[in-house]
Amino acid sequence: MIQSLLHQIREEMPKMAAAERRVAEAVNARPNDVIHMSMAVLAKDCGVSDPTIIRFCRRFGFDGYQDFKVNLAQNIVPRAPFHYDKITADDTVENIVRKTCENSLSAIQRALEDLVPAQIEAGAKAIHAASWLAIYATGISEVTAIDAEHKFQRLGFRCSAILGEKRQRTQAGFARPGELALIFSQSGATRQMVELAKATREKGATVLSITAGDTPLAAVSDHVIAVTPYDHTELLTPLASRLNHHLVVNMLVTAIAVMTGNEFPDQLPALDSWLTEKL
Predict the structure, then answer these.
(1) Which of 52, 142, 214, 215 is packed most tightly, with the most Cβ within 10 A?
(2) Residues 140, 252: contact at Cβ < 8 Å?
(3) What is the pTM of this model?
Protein backbone atom coordinates (compact mmCIF):
# COMPACT_ATOMS: atom_id res chain seq x y z
CA MET A 1 0.00 0.00 0.00
CA ILE A 2 1.54 3.32 -1.05
CA GLN A 3 -0.12 5.27 1.75
CA SER A 4 -1.41 4.14 5.11
CA LEU A 5 -5.19 4.04 5.41
CA LEU A 6 -5.16 6.82 8.02
CA HIS A 7 -3.08 8.95 5.68
CA GLN A 8 -5.61 8.41 2.88
CA ILE A 9 -8.46 9.33 5.21
CA ARG A 10 -6.76 12.60 6.19
CA GLU A 11 -6.19 13.48 2.53
CA GLU A 12 -9.79 12.72 1.53
CA MET A 13 -11.39 14.47 4.51
CA PRO A 14 -11.72 17.94 2.88
CA LYS A 15 -13.62 16.38 -0.06
CA MET A 16 -16.21 14.63 2.11
CA ALA A 17 -19.76 15.66 2.87
CA ALA A 18 -20.47 16.60 6.48
CA ALA A 19 -21.75 13.18 7.58
CA GLU A 20 -18.82 11.22 6.11
CA ARG A 21 -16.39 13.78 7.49
CA ARG A 22 -17.67 13.09 11.01
CA VAL A 23 -16.87 9.42 10.49
CA ALA A 24 -13.42 10.30 9.14
CA GLU A 25 -12.71 12.55 12.12
CA ALA A 26 -13.71 9.79 14.55
CA VAL A 27 -11.54 7.19 12.79
CA ASN A 28 -8.58 9.56 12.57
CA ALA A 29 -8.82 10.66 16.20
CA ARG A 30 -9.60 7.25 17.79
CA PRO A 31 -8.57 4.41 15.44
CA ASN A 32 -7.86 2.05 18.34
CA ASP A 33 -11.43 2.51 19.61
CA VAL A 34 -13.02 2.23 16.18
CA ILE A 35 -11.57 -1.23 15.45
CA HIS A 36 -13.53 -2.53 18.46
CA MET A 37 -16.82 -0.80 17.56
CA SER A 38 -19.73 -2.34 15.72
CA MET A 39 -21.10 -0.36 12.77
CA ALA A 40 -24.16 0.56 14.81
CA VAL A 41 -22.04 1.92 17.67
CA LEU A 42 -19.83 3.96 15.31
CA ALA A 43 -22.90 5.31 13.48
CA LYS A 44 -24.48 6.41 16.76
CA ASP A 45 -21.18 7.89 17.98
CA CYS A 46 -20.88 10.00 14.81
CA GLY A 47 -24.56 10.81 14.49
CA VAL A 48 -24.84 9.20 11.04
CA SER A 49 -26.72 6.32 9.43
CA ASP A 50 -25.39 2.83 8.65
CA PRO A 51 -25.44 3.57 4.87
CA THR A 52 -23.13 6.54 5.53
CA ILE A 53 -20.63 4.20 7.19
CA ILE A 54 -20.82 1.85 4.20
CA ARG A 55 -20.29 4.73 1.74
CA PHE A 56 -17.30 5.87 3.80
CA CYS A 57 -15.75 2.39 3.67
CA ARG A 58 -16.36 2.01 -0.06
CA ARG A 59 -14.69 5.37 -0.71
CA PHE A 60 -11.44 3.63 0.24
CA GLY A 61 -12.08 0.48 -1.74
CA PHE A 62 -13.53 -1.79 0.94
CA ASP A 63 -16.61 -3.96 0.45
CA GLY A 64 -17.95 -3.31 3.92
CA TYR A 65 -17.27 -2.13 7.44
CA GLN A 66 -15.68 -5.37 8.63
CA ASP A 67 -13.17 -5.34 5.77
CA PHE A 68 -12.39 -1.70 6.59
CA LYS A 69 -11.80 -2.50 10.30
CA VAL A 70 -9.37 -5.33 9.49
CA ASN A 71 -7.30 -3.04 7.31
CA LEU A 72 -7.43 -0.24 9.87
CA ALA A 73 -6.18 -2.61 12.57
CA GLN A 74 -3.25 -3.60 10.36
CA ASN A 75 -2.41 0.07 9.81
CA ILE A 76 -2.23 1.00 13.47
CA VAL A 77 0.10 -1.80 14.55
CA PRO A 78 3.10 0.03 16.09
CA ARG A 79 5.77 0.48 13.44
CA ALA A 80 9.37 -0.32 14.20
CA PRO A 81 11.63 2.74 14.15
CA PHE A 82 13.82 3.42 11.15
CA HIS A 83 16.41 0.64 11.12
CA TYR A 84 20.03 1.63 10.62
CA ASP A 85 22.75 -0.97 11.02
CA LYS A 86 25.91 1.00 11.75
CA ILE A 87 29.05 0.10 9.80
CA THR A 88 32.07 -0.28 12.07
CA ALA A 89 35.82 -0.56 11.58
CA ASP A 90 35.57 -4.31 12.20
CA ASP A 91 33.13 -4.95 9.36
CA THR A 92 34.17 -7.10 6.41
CA VAL A 93 33.49 -5.93 2.86
CA GLU A 94 30.67 -8.49 2.78
CA ASN A 95 29.06 -6.81 5.81
CA ILE A 96 29.56 -3.35 4.30
CA VAL A 97 27.74 -4.42 1.13
CA ARG A 98 24.90 -6.02 3.09
CA LYS A 99 24.47 -3.17 5.59
CA THR A 100 24.59 -0.46 2.92
CA CYS A 101 21.87 -2.18 0.88
CA GLU A 102 19.70 -2.98 3.91
CA ASN A 103 20.00 0.59 5.26
CA SER A 104 19.02 1.97 1.85
CA LEU A 105 16.03 -0.36 1.58
CA SER A 106 14.90 0.67 5.04
CA ALA A 107 15.13 4.35 4.10
CA ILE A 108 13.12 3.81 0.91
CA GLN A 109 10.45 1.90 2.82
CA ARG A 110 10.10 4.78 5.26
CA ALA A 111 9.87 7.24 2.37
CA LEU A 112 7.05 5.15 0.90
CA GLU A 113 5.15 5.59 4.16
CA ASP A 114 6.09 9.20 4.90
CA LEU A 115 5.93 11.04 1.57
CA VAL A 116 2.70 12.91 0.79
CA PRO A 117 1.65 12.48 -2.87
CA ALA A 118 -0.25 15.78 -2.80
CA GLN A 119 3.02 17.57 -2.04
CA ILE A 120 4.72 15.85 -4.98
CA GLU A 121 1.82 16.88 -7.23
CA ALA A 122 1.89 20.50 -6.04
CA GLY A 123 5.66 20.62 -6.52
CA ALA A 124 5.43 19.20 -10.03
CA LYS A 125 2.79 21.78 -11.00
CA ALA A 126 4.88 24.62 -9.55
CA ILE A 127 7.95 23.52 -11.52
CA HIS A 128 5.93 23.08 -14.70
CA ALA A 129 4.52 26.60 -14.37
CA ALA A 130 7.90 28.26 -13.77
CA SER A 131 9.63 30.28 -16.50
CA TRP A 132 13.05 29.44 -15.05
CA LEU A 133 14.27 27.10 -12.33
CA ALA A 134 17.17 27.91 -9.99
CA ILE A 135 18.33 24.85 -8.05
CA TYR A 136 20.06 25.53 -4.73
CA ALA A 137 21.93 23.23 -2.35
CA THR A 138 25.06 23.15 -0.24
CA GLY A 139 27.34 20.44 1.10
CA ILE A 140 26.41 16.87 0.31
CA SER A 141 23.06 17.97 -1.19
CA GLU A 142 24.92 19.57 -4.12
CA VAL A 143 25.05 16.12 -5.75
CA THR A 144 21.25 16.01 -5.70
CA ALA A 145 21.05 19.53 -7.17
CA ILE A 146 23.25 18.53 -10.10
CA ASP A 147 21.17 15.40 -10.65
CA ALA A 148 17.99 17.50 -10.63
CA GLU A 149 19.50 19.96 -13.13
CA HIS A 150 20.29 17.13 -15.54
CA LYS A 151 16.86 15.53 -15.28
CA PHE A 152 14.85 18.74 -15.62
CA GLN A 153 16.95 19.83 -18.59
CA ARG A 154 16.15 16.47 -20.20
CA LEU A 155 12.49 17.51 -19.93
CA GLY A 156 13.27 20.78 -21.69
CA PHE A 157 13.16 23.12 -18.66
CA ARG A 158 15.34 26.21 -18.47
CA CYS A 159 17.20 25.57 -15.23
CA SER A 160 20.58 25.59 -13.54
CA ALA A 161 22.13 24.22 -10.37
CA ILE A 162 23.53 27.28 -8.58
CA LEU A 163 26.35 26.17 -6.29
CA GLY A 164 28.59 28.23 -4.02
CA GLU A 165 27.37 30.82 -1.55
CA LYS A 166 28.46 33.90 -3.54
CA ARG A 167 26.80 32.68 -6.75
CA GLN A 168 23.66 31.73 -4.86
CA ARG A 169 23.30 35.12 -3.20
CA THR A 170 23.86 36.88 -6.52
CA GLN A 171 21.28 34.73 -8.31
CA ALA A 172 18.71 35.17 -5.54
CA GLY A 173 19.13 38.93 -5.87
CA PHE A 174 18.11 38.71 -9.54
CA ALA A 175 15.07 36.47 -8.95
CA ARG A 176 11.80 37.64 -10.46
CA PRO A 177 8.10 36.69 -10.50
CA GLY A 178 7.37 33.56 -12.52
CA GLU A 179 10.66 31.92 -11.59
CA LEU A 180 11.06 29.14 -9.04
CA ALA A 181 13.82 28.31 -6.58
CA LEU A 182 14.14 24.58 -5.87
CA ILE A 183 16.03 24.16 -2.61
CA PHE A 184 17.45 20.92 -1.22
CA SER A 185 18.27 20.73 2.48
CA GLN A 186 18.24 17.59 4.59
CA SER A 187 18.00 19.38 7.94
CA GLY A 188 15.95 22.39 6.86
CA ALA A 189 17.98 24.46 9.32
CA THR A 190 20.94 25.60 7.21
CA ARG A 191 21.05 29.40 7.54
CA GLN A 192 22.34 29.86 3.98
CA MET A 193 19.36 28.03 2.47
CA VAL A 194 16.82 29.80 4.69
CA GLU A 195 18.23 33.20 3.73
CA LEU A 196 18.14 32.26 0.03
CA ALA A 197 14.49 31.28 0.33
CA LYS A 198 13.64 34.60 1.98
CA ALA A 199 15.60 36.63 -0.57
CA THR A 200 13.99 34.80 -3.49
CA ARG A 201 10.47 35.31 -2.19
CA GLU A 202 11.13 39.00 -1.55
CA LYS A 203 11.80 39.31 -5.29
CA GLY A 204 8.46 37.68 -6.10
CA ALA A 205 9.71 34.24 -7.14
CA THR A 206 8.28 30.97 -5.80
CA VAL A 207 10.19 28.67 -3.44
CA LEU A 208 9.83 24.89 -3.46
CA SER A 209 11.88 23.16 -0.77
CA ILE A 210 12.65 19.46 -0.48
CA THR A 211 13.49 19.27 3.19
CA ALA A 212 12.37 18.11 6.60
CA GLY A 213 8.90 19.28 7.62
CA ASP A 214 8.37 21.75 10.48
CA THR A 215 11.77 23.39 9.97
CA PRO A 216 12.91 27.01 9.44
CA LEU A 217 13.31 26.40 5.69
CA ALA A 218 9.86 24.81 5.39
CA ALA A 219 8.36 27.79 7.20
CA VAL A 220 9.66 30.29 4.60
CA SER A 221 8.81 28.20 1.51
CA ASP A 222 5.74 28.42 -0.73
CA HIS A 223 5.73 24.66 -1.31
CA VAL A 224 7.37 21.89 0.71
CA ILE A 225 7.98 18.24 -0.05
CA ALA A 226 8.67 16.87 3.41
CA VAL A 227 11.39 14.21 3.53
CA THR A 228 12.08 12.87 7.00
CA PRO A 229 15.81 12.99 7.83
CA TYR A 230 17.19 9.79 9.33
CA ASP A 231 19.83 10.06 12.02
CA HIS A 232 22.66 7.75 13.08
CA THR A 233 24.34 7.64 9.68
CA GLU A 234 28.08 8.06 9.76
CA LEU A 235 30.16 10.19 7.44
CA LEU A 236 31.41 7.60 4.96
CA THR A 237 28.12 5.96 3.96
CA PRO A 238 25.40 7.46 1.71
CA LEU A 239 22.91 9.35 3.83
CA ALA A 240 19.46 7.83 3.76
CA SER A 241 17.76 11.20 3.40
CA ARG A 242 19.96 12.05 0.40
CA LEU A 243 18.88 8.81 -1.26
CA ASN A 244 15.26 9.77 -0.70
CA HIS A 245 15.89 13.28 -2.09
CA HIS A 246 17.03 11.60 -5.32
CA LEU A 247 13.85 9.54 -5.34
CA VAL A 248 11.76 12.71 -4.95
CA VAL A 249 13.53 14.24 -7.97
CA ASN A 250 12.59 11.16 -10.01
CA MET A 251 9.00 11.38 -8.77
CA LEU A 252 8.78 15.04 -9.80
CA VAL A 253 10.28 14.35 -13.23
CA THR A 254 7.90 11.46 -13.83
CA ALA A 255 4.87 13.40 -12.58
CA ILE A 256 5.70 16.31 -14.90
CA ALA A 257 6.30 13.94 -17.82
CA VAL A 258 2.89 12.35 -17.30
CA MET A 259 1.26 15.79 -17.01
CA THR A 260 2.82 16.91 -20.29
CA GLY A 261 2.31 13.67 -22.22
CA ASN A 262 5.92 12.51 -22.50
CA GLU A 263 6.27 8.88 -23.55
CA PHE A 264 7.85 6.40 -21.12
CA PRO A 265 8.26 8.99 -18.34
CA ASP A 266 9.74 6.52 -15.84
CA GLN A 267 12.66 5.91 -18.21
CA LEU A 268 13.64 9.55 -18.77
CA PRO A 269 16.65 9.44 -16.42
CA ALA A 270 18.14 6.64 -18.51
CA LEU A 271 17.62 8.15 -21.97
CA ASP A 272 21.16 9.51 -22.27
CA SER A 273 22.55 6.02 -22.81
CA TRP A 274 20.68 5.89 -26.13
CA LEU A 275 22.10 9.19 -27.34
CA THR A 276 25.81 8.56 -26.78
CA GLU A 277 28.13 6.75 -29.16
CA LYS A 278 28.95 3.18 -28.13
CA LEU A 279 31.95 1.05 -29.04
Answers:
(1) 215
(2) no
(3) 0.66
